[in-house]
Specification:
The complex is a heterodimer of chains A (243) and B (474). With 243 residues, chain A is mainly α. Helices cover 61% and strands 1% of the residues of chain A. In chain A, helix 5 packs parallel to helix 7, helix 6 runs antiparallel to helix 7 and helix 11 packs antiparallel against helix 13. The two termini of chain A are 34 Å apart. Chain B is mainly β and 474 residues long. Chain B has five helices and 35 strands. In chain B, the strands form nine sheets. In chain B, strands 28-26-30-34-33 form a five-stranded mixed beta sheet, with helices on both faces. In chain B, a hairpin with an 8-residue loop joins strand 8 and strand 9. Chain B is globular, with a radius of gyration of 22 Å. The chains are: A mainly alpha (243), B mainly beta (474). At the A-B interface, strand 1, helix 5, helix 7, helix 10 and helix 13 of A face helix 3, strand 31, strand 32, strand 33 and helix 4 of B.
């Protein structure tokens, strides 16, 4: 292990402790309350995965279609993914691709761009072929133009920059899927000599190598021990004296 | 002697940026070059320092009554100032018997910082390596050298025949590192970080003796100040044309510079008729801030307590803040967030809460970085941000924090030096920053919907217990 790796390994990252119940209420929050919270390190996977998809997915899809819920769309998108219900695949893809040319607000942008990682969660739980195929096709940064996505990112000055970030997050989605089919795609994008697809990806995103490597590692870890364990391992140990 | 206040900067890299606004006051006082650089934080005003009768005195904010902070027989002319421990407070420096001595915060006993035979008159000060601690600079034998933090051995950083008397110092590109300024041949030139080749930044017949330096527009870059024809003029960033900012018969020898009103812009200070006066930003009329017969030659400026009137019980943490180029954050907003974070920690609002005396303040201006693409997608990108100078890095999107996860708004190594955050709901950003600051102080999460360290936040997540408070105050 290199010094840098040791240093990295020495860092305890502050990630969500398992919040299984709402201590104030003494019971689990309902799905609306759950997605209305502000999670500092992201929606807690284990808690989200406890909700009943049959009851929760329709509620969340309604909220995703309601502009009054726009501030919570990032959590709604991610929670839909963590529930792993294939019924959410088409609405999520539609949500990602729709929208006018005006720049999105911050939560709108975070929500839309997070769809591809949410699809990774769905692949993990349901094995959705459609979600997987969407992610695989999304490893080509030019696909976003072909999909005729019109909305503008508030943080990227050009469509090309927006497309790069969406593709990077799609690679992360393949990683989160923990799916062996996704792993094969990630390996093919990393292999030498590079395939034409990999050459294109590297040409458009020169620093994609780190993303592919980390995504493949995550994929293999999730495949081996499961998503819950993947997230559980990053929990910091509470200091003595804390609850 | 007053005990040293608790300071919460801990392992944080401190502020380098303050140099641009404080290097010159000492040069002006001494009538030659910048011989010291007094750190300041933007929260407080500049303090006024004097040494006479074996005592060091400070007028906090220039408006307070003299307070004795230490005893010493070292003459004022033999004192220099810098932030050698990086706590955003001015330390007092001198050289004696081949040793460099420092009194931390101006209140501590003299401690040996280093050994050196270089005369005090050949030393200058700045943060050339951008680590937030004052470095010692000297020039001899055609080489510029620095001692990092005043504790390191001399390192050659450049080759130049110009000696310290020909040089001035500031942060002309706003990168947090002290640059070296010189003027000859009708041109102003800068060596960025003291390591770069000379670059012509402007044409002017005025030499360094006619110039003073400050950040008069508050953009984080050092501006050049001059006075002639009854007018004060500024060249913004040293690259702009002269702009008249005020009418005054006072020339540069009669002026000093510092941010007395804490608005992030350099003010002009003068003393006459038994009164101290400032012109805010150099643009306003004179305002009397104090009455004193102590004149300019017997004064130095610096931020000796970080605040003007707080008691020692409060642990101060000065935080350098930066944002990605496309992220949104200005000084005023950063101050509001830090004030909110401080209030969250200080306010006891429940039976299991303690009023934790911690104050987070901004050091220098909010700076801009271009590292990464504004999104954290990998461990390498996160580590690159953490490695940047400063304590708070604002980005647009975080998708990695130990594991991949979309929608993260804050991530910090526990026990680390800095936090990465995304701008979010305005009335809860103070909680977010306090939460992440807690991680950097070594705190993990606490599953309590009223706790600052709860994994999710809302307006009620404002409480800290005594153990957490102790960590916040480290």
């Amino acid at each position: 292990m290199s010094g840098g790796q040791r240093a990295l390994a020495g860092i305890l990252f502050a990630i969500i402790l398992a919040v299984t119940v709402d201590p104030a209420a003494g019971q689990a929050p309902d799905i609306r309350t759950f997605v209305h919270r502000i999670y500092i390190e992201g929606v807690p996977y284990e808690e989200a995965a406890r909700f009943d998809p049959a009851a929760s997915v329709p509620i969340l899809l309604d909220m995703l279609a309601d502009p009054k819920e726009a501030d919570y769309w990032p959590n709604i998108v991610v929670t839909l993914g963590m529930l792993g219900d294939e019924r959410a695949v088409d609405p999520l893809i539609q949500f990602l691709q729709q929208g006018a040319t005006a720049p999105l607000s911050h939560p709108q942008y975070i929500a839309k761009s997070s769809v591809v990682m949410a699809l990774g969660y769905i692949v993990n739980k349901s094995g959705s072929e459609k979600a997987l195929q969407f992610l695989v096709e999304s490893t080509d940064p030019e696909v976003w133009t072909r999909r005729d996505i019109k909305w503008s990112s508030p943080y990227h000055s050009t469509e090309v920059e927006r497309n790069r970030q969406l593709t990077i997050m799609s690679v992360l989605g393949l990683g989160l899927s923990g799916d062996p089919r996704a792993a094969r795609v990630l390996r093919s994008l990393r292999q030498a000599p590079a395939t034409p697809q990999a050459k294109n990806l590297r040409a458009q995103i020169p620093d994609v190598g780190d993303v592919l490597k980390d995504a493949l590692q995550a994929n293999q870890k999730i495949a081996k021990t499961g998503m819950a364990d993947y997230y559980r391992q990053r929990f910091p140990k509470p200091l003595p004296g804390t609850k | 002697m007053r005990s040293m206040p608790a300071v919460a900067c801990g392992a944080f890299f401190p502020t380098p940026r303050e140099f641009k606004s404080v290097v010159w006051p000492l040069a002006l006082f001494l009538g030659f070059l910048a011989t010291g650089s007094v750190p300041r934080d933007a929260y407080s005003g500049e303090d006024v320092f004097s040494a006479s009768g074996g005592k060091w005195r400070v007028s906090y904010g220039g408006a307070g009554t003299w307070q004795v902070i230490n005893t010493s027989n070292v003459a004022l002319s033999d004192l220099r100032f810098g932030d050698f421990d990086g706590n955003c407070r001015a330390d007092v420096f001198t050289s004696s018997g081949g040793k460099w001595l420092v009194s931390y915060n101006g209140t501590g006993l003299w401690q040996v910082l280093n050994t050196s035979s270089v005369a005090l008159s050949n030393l200058r000060f700045g943060d050339f390596d951008g680590d937030g601690k004052t470095d010692v600079f000297t020039a001899s034998g055609g080489k510029w050298r620095i001692s990092s933090g005043g504790t390191g051995s001399w390192q050659v950083i450049n080759n130049s025949s110009l000696g310290v008397s020909d040089l001035r110092f500031g942060d002309f590109n706003g990168d947090g590192k002290t640059d070296v300024f010189a003027a000859w041949g009708g041109k102003w030139r800068v060596s960025f970080g003291g390591t770069g080749n000379w670059q012509v930044i402007n044409n002017s017949s005025l030499g360094v003796a006619d110039l003073r330096f400050g950040d008069f527009d508050g953009d984080g870059k050092t501006d050049v100040f001059a006075a002639w024809g009854g007018k004060w003029r500024v060249s913004l960033g040293g690259t702009g044309n002269w702009q008249v900012i005020n009418n005054s018969s006072f020339g540069v020898p009669d002026l000093r510079f510092g941010d007395f009103d804490g608005d992030g812009k350099t003010d002009v200070f003068a003393a006459w008729g038994g009164k101290w006066r400032i012109s805010s930003g150099g643009t306003s009329n004179w305002k009397v801030i104090n009455t004193s017969n102590v004149g300019l030659s017997d004064l130095r400026l610096g931020d000796f307590n970080g605040l003007s009137s707080d008691s020692d019980a409060i642990a101060h943490s000065c935080m350098r803040i930066s944002r990605f180029t496309t992220a949104s954050l200005d000084n005023a907003t950063a101050d509001a967030i830090l004030a909110s974070a401080s209030s969250v920690l200080q306010t006891k609002d429940g039976p299991d809460d303690v009023a934790c005396p911690v104050k987070l303040t901004r050091a220098g201006n909010v700076t801009v970085f271009a590292t990464g693409g504004g999104s954290v997608n990998t461990a390498a990108q996160f580590n690159a941000l953490i490695a940047l100078p400063g304590h708070v890095k604002v980005v647009n999107q975080i998708n990695w924090c130990g594991t991949f996860q979309p929608g993260i708004i804050g991530c910090s190594p526990v026990g680390g030096n800095s936090q990465v955050v995304v701008r979010y709901t305005a009335n809860e950003e103070g909680i977010l920053w306090a939460h992440e600051y807690g991680h950097t102080r070594g705190l993990g999460h606490r599953n309590d919907t009223n706790a600052v360290m709860n994994p999710f936040i809302g307006i009620t997540e404002t409480r800290v217990n005594s153990a957490e408070c102790a960590a916040f105050r480290k």
